[in-house]
Amino acid sequence: MKGVFFGILALFISGLQLQAQDNYALPPYEFSGYVKDVQTVFVPEEMKENWLSDNAIHNRLKFTYYPTSWLTLDIQARNRFIYGDFVKLFPDYTQYALNQDYYADLDWVWFENESAVGISELDRLNAQLVKGKWELTLGRQRINWGMNLVWNPNDVFNTFSYFNFEYEERPGTDAARIKYYGSLTSSAELVYQAGDSIEKMAMAGLYRFNKWGYDFQFLGGFMGNDYLAGFGYSGHIGGAAFRGEMTWFQPRKSIGDTTGIVVASLSGDYTFENNLYLHGGFLFNSNGKSGKAGGIGIFTTGELSPKTLSRGKVNLFGQITYNITPLVKGGVSTIMNPQDLSAFVSPSIDVSISDNFQLSGIGQLFFGQNDTEFGKIGQIGYLRFKYSF
Predict the structure, then answer these.
(1) Residue 89 backbone phi and psi in degrees, to 5
(2) Which residues lie below 8 Å from residue 116, measured CB to CB, with a gap of 6+?
(3) Shortest CA distance to 311 belongs to which of 373, 249, 366, 369?
(4) Residues 6+ apart with CB under 8 A from 189
């Protein structure tokens, strides 16, 4: 699979040669990106007298090239310079900041000392070929099979954490993906994710179709040491969006016993005429704990997968946002473990200063007793400036 990287470069070069065969009214490429500065203050629960501060400069560059009508090349780079107390005090912070789930090594740590780190990575590098109803994508790409907006048990290739709000593009995966469009409302696809070992590999297929005004999907395959089978849907009830998805994971070495795990989520959201937005969700994880779930790690590199979307057996989600003015939006979201009575609360406010410049304030507040899912972590505040181009 590491040869995919060089194969994509070969496609890029051949695309330059093929460009002359197609006539374009506009240049056959798109270039965009952003620069943002994120200032962070962390007040750990166990050392409230010591406030920790951190600053991160993020830059994203996105280049999409269309050398012919049937070939698209997507290259996206993520560059970060992080300095402050987090780098000083948390061991292996550089490893935490890097995405460890990729097969090919496309990261570059270009600066590192006791208080700062500079990292660049290619988190998108793929070629997409289209022929009739067929579509083939090779390389590092985002494969999103989730239906819900917060918890996605169906998202077996690109699991993401709701707490990592700064990575809005979300990670990709090194994979080969073939997709067939049966009609305007149905499609089938097969994905192989590369890995150094069977534990890091995955292969699954998905079939999606529309019926009775709902989008339905079924999936199956294997992820690491587990077989998997899943189901998802998305539609509307009385003007409100209604979504659900469920995936069952069964160890391949014990296919006949009851050691399988079921992860399921439901959600609904509705926008009123005055732009008031409400969103609620429910997550069930049969592998979660019913009592005190044990605290989540903010600065750990623990494995993230659809099986580890929560530590507790049940999580509840709620969100409300409102446009205070056309240029100012405020909101608050929360996740609660009703069994150990711990909670996460995230207030936010976004100010649109201009068409391409935004100011945001975000809080991540954790409450609960020792050994609960959201307890004994502390409080985090973010101030973000973002300029897009």
Answers:
(1) -100, -25
(2) 81, 82, 83, 84, 87
(3) 373
(4) 177, 178, 179, 180, 205, 206
What's the CA gap between 282 and 38, in Å, rounded? Answer: 30
- Is 117 within 8 Å of 157 (Cβ atoms)? no
SS3 3: helix
**CB neighbours of 317 closer than 8 A, spacing ≥ 6?**
150, 151, 267, 279, 280, 281, 282, 283, 333, 334, 335, 336
Count other C-beta atoms under 10 Å from residue 346's C-beta.
20
Q: What is the pLDDT of residue 13?
A: 47
Residue count of the chain, please give it: 389
Residues 123-171 pLDDT 10s? 999 999 999 999 999 999 999 999 999 999 999 998 989 999 999 999 9
pLDDT for 16 equals 47
Q: Is the model's pLDDT at 14 over the cut of 80?
A: no
Among 2-11, 38-47, 331-340, whose mean pLDDT is lowest?
2-11
Q: What angle do CA 229, 234, 235 make, to 5 degrees?
A: 150
